[in-house]
UniProtKB/TrEMBL annotation:
Protein name per the record: DoxX family membrane protein
GO cellular component term, pick one: membrane
GTP-binding among keywords: no
Recorded superkingdom: Bacteria
Length: 571
């Protein structure tokens, strides 16, 4: 019995210490797991969710202290009772999770060792048996060292645990066991090997054979039975290979940019999985390092599970010079235990990963053949102009006075503003915006993406569109900017078509249409050489043919028919 107790003492003590230290290395990750257990569909302990991190820290420190105390023989009675109560609680928890399939990973060993729910329950049963052996043979548990030395070692362990907790909360886990550790390639982590095992299903075929029901079980093949098939039940009995990274996406406006960004050589990614509880102080150093990254030739994006409305508000509040894309919240929490956090990617490989507290430690050498330095002061001014450019136009789209009032109040406008002559007020703003943009045109040319970034490169184009009397003067400038890749060629094509229409001439690309309430109806403005317009549209970068584009303008029932200037002038 003495030997059995000694072996059990070592196994239980070491397992508790290892399990505690792994979770001590990543208490934030353990708190996420506790939140899973606290969820309404599991234990329904929602009131504990705000305290999940504190509970996680308390449990992991206790776990380590109990393991050390058991090995030292410190406060034997208290230690054994604490071990028993803890293992009984976790045995119940893992059984509940496994039986009802509520939480698929108990988090017992963090991300270092993944256990299925039933494996976790089996592990706890073994520990429960070993702890019961310790209870029965507790007289054989002899302490090591003197009482004072044991107390000092326990206190030193407690202080060490606090030190580790303090460090990893202000930085990142000391050891990263996740598939997103530094050096890992996200593209490779998402790949399924050619010979990877697939899932195995069990099929239960119910037949009517001579008036009797007969069930035949196979793993896929249709059974050879002389009878009428009544029903089939399918159950997965073994899961197939699941790649370590399987929920990673970069999406915006319904488009998936994952492949594009994972192929970039110099990409900085700011991760803010939830803006509802993000650390706002983190965006001050993040703005500094992302501005530097852009100047040094890096592309910068954000990833968040929050709404686009929230991310755009954050960008505006902190004057960030990048935009956010959507990714699953659980995935983002797995990538970095910081909200916000920072990644540097090179063709999908994680080169650097930092807590926002360490943002200024981000190493960003200048990229050879980097893009020209962005003018952030100009960009901020243009981004402000965007707001003014749409200020009253949004109100003019309101379908009723009540809707206009609600929208105006939401925008912080006075009653005089949202109930006044919106068209006239917008004309004044458009004129003011044009003064600034025209001055820049004259002094430095068109402020394209190499100057203010891709997102702000069309601000000046929009301002010019809303001041049509200036289009003839600056259309050549816009076309040069498009030829230089500073703005999309489609934008220059649209402005050229608009200019030609205003001059009463046929357009080139078919981007302009007209609608009347009388017999003239809706039509595409006459096009020069309409038989080859789709070729020109394709060369300019338009995805749709003129036939498809006209339906976008006027509805699915619209049928495009080319008109001539003579026909227009006769109407």
């Amino acid at each position: 019995m003495k030997i059995l107790v000694g072996i059990s003492r070592i196994i239980v003590g070491v397992l508790f210490i290892i399990s505690g230290l792994i979770k001590l290395n990543d208490p934030v990750g353990f708190s996420f797991k506790l939140k899973d257990y606290f969820a309404p569909e599991v234990l329904n302990l929602g009131f504990l969710v705000p305290y999940a991190l504190l509970i996680a820290i308390f449990l992991v420190i206790i776990e380590v202290l109990l393991g050390v105390a058991l090995l030292l023989g410190y406060l034997k009675k208290l230690t054994l009772w604490s071990l028993l109560l803890m293992i009984v609680f976790f045995t119940f928890l893992t059984f509940y999770s496994a039986y009802f399939n509520k939480v698929t990973d108990c988090g017992c060993f963090g991300d270092a060792i993944k256990l299925t729910p039933w494996e976790s329950f089996s592990k706890d049963i073994v520990l429960l048996v070993l702890i019961l052996i310790l209870f029965i043979g507790r007289k054989y548990i002899q302490p090591f060292f003197t009482k004072g030395t044991r107390s000092i070692l326990i206190f030193a362990t407690f202080v060490a645990c606090l030190g580790i907790i303090y460090y990893v909360l202000l930085h990142l886990p000391i050891i990263d066991f996740r598939p997103y550790k530094i050096g890992a390639n996200i593209k490779e982590g998402m790949t399924i090997p050619e010979n990877a095992p697939g899932p195995i299903y069990e099929y239960k075929w119910k037949f009517n054979v001579n008036g009797e029901e007969k069930i035949i079980t196979t793993t896929g093949d249709y059974p050879k039975v002389d009878g009428e098939l009544i029903s089939t039940d399918t159950e997965m009995i073994q899961e197939g290979y699941t790649p370590p990274i399987h929920d990673f996406t970069m999406e915006r406006d319904g488009e998936d940019y994952t492949a594009q960004f994972l192929d970039e050589e110099n990409l900085v990614v700011i991760i803010a999985y939830s803006l509802g509880n993000t650390e706002k102080d983190g965006y001050i150093p993040i703005k500094e390092v992302t501005d530097k990254a852009l100047k040094n030739g890096y592309n910068v994006i954000g990833l968040s599970a929050s709404s686009q409305e929230m991310t755009e508000a954050l960008v505006e509040e902190y004057k960030l010079n990048f935009k956010f894309y959507f990714c699953d919240e659980t995935t983002l929490k797995t990538i970095v235990r910081s909200n916000p956090g920072i990644l540097e990617l090179d063709n999908g490989t994680i080169k650097q990963k930092l807590h926002w507290n360490d943002a200024l430690k981000l190493q960003l050498p200048v990229v050879e053949n980097a893009k020209p330095k962005l003018d952030f002061s100009l960009k901020q001014r243009l981004d402000s102009i965007v707001v003014l450019d749409q200020k009253y136009r949004l109100l003019m789209q309101a379908r009723s006075l009540e809707e206009r009032k609600k929208l105006g109040e939401k925008m912080g406008l006075t009653e005089a503003e949202y109930s006044g002559d919106l068209s006239q007020m917008q004309l004044v703003l458009d004129s003011v915006n044009m003064v600034f943009v025209e001055k820049y045109f004259i002094q430095k040319g068109y402020p394209g993406k190499s100057v203010v970034g891709e997102e702000s490169s069309l601000v000046a184009w929009n301002v010019l569109q809303h001041n049509p009397d200036k289009i003839p003067l600056y259309l050549p400038l816009v076309k040069r900017a498009a030829d230089a890749g500073e703005i999309p060629k489609t934008s220059a094509a649209m402005m050229e078509d608009r200019y030609l229409m205003m001059e009463g001439k046929p357009q080139i690309y078919g981007t302009q249409g007209m609608s009347y309430d009388d017999a003239r109806g809706s039509f595409i403005w006459p096009i020069e050489n309409p038989e080859t317009v789709n070729e020109r549209r394709k060369e300019a970068g338009f995805d749709e043919t003129i036939e498809v584009y006209s339906k976008i303008l006027f509805g699915d029932d619209f049928v495009y028919k080319p008109r001539t200037m003579e026909q227009i002038n006769q109407q």
